[in-house]
UniProtKB/TrEMBL annotation:
The lineage of its organism: Bacteria, Pseudomonadati, Pseudomonadota, Gammaproteobacteria, Cellvibrionales. GO terms for molecular function: arylsulfatase activity. It comes from Parahaliea mediterranea. Belongs to the sulfatase family. This is Arylsulfatase. Transmembrane segments: none annotated. PANTHER family: ARYLSULFATASE FAMILY MEMBER (PTHR42693), ENDO-4-O-SULFATASE (PTHR42693:SF53).
């Protein structure tokens, strides 16, 4: 797994330049160039503006319910839509056929838990860097009373 954020550190490594001590999100792709099976990231993260909404491991992709609550639920009864009564977290097997056709969240709760822990840890890490207030989310049905 690689990201476009890996381009800067890769170019710097090729030029023999050490980036400043500032935080650089990417990692050099040179190990992947030498061995295509090399993994330089345990996880990649998906953002919706400044909010972390998903996480990807080599096999799995988890998209958090918050993303769907903001983009699909433009009304208060969002939780009454078919398929959204329970957890909205979607887990996809990216190595399977039809990778994002079906959510495996109910079948692999341990994977969901592991990825959610990684997602929340990364959210805590980047939250202090946010420049905008959190986006609007539609409340849970039980909190509407």
């Amino acid at each position: 797994m690689v990201s476009n954020l890996d381009v800067l550190p890769t170019v710097a490594a090729l030029l023999g330049v050490k980036p400043a001590a500032a935080l650089i999100d990417g990692r050099s792709l040179l190990p992947v160039f030498r061995d295509p099976g090399e993994q330089i990231h345990d996880y990649l993260y998906y953002f919706d503006n400044e909010r972390v909404v998903g996480v990807r491991s080599p096999r799995w992709k988890l998209v958090s319910h918050g993303y769907y609550r903001r983009h699909l639920g433009a009304f208060e009864a969002f939780d009454q839509l078919p398929g959204f009564q329970g957890s909205y977290d979607l887990l996809f097997d990216m190595q399977g056929e039809g990778a994002e056709d079906y959510s495996y969240a109910d079948r692999y709760p341990a994977v969901v838990s592991r990825l959610k822990n990684a997602l929340w840890a990364f959210r805590r890490e980047v939250e202090p860097l946010q420049t905008q207030p959190p986006g609007r989310e539609f409340p849970d049905r039980q909190n509407l009373q």
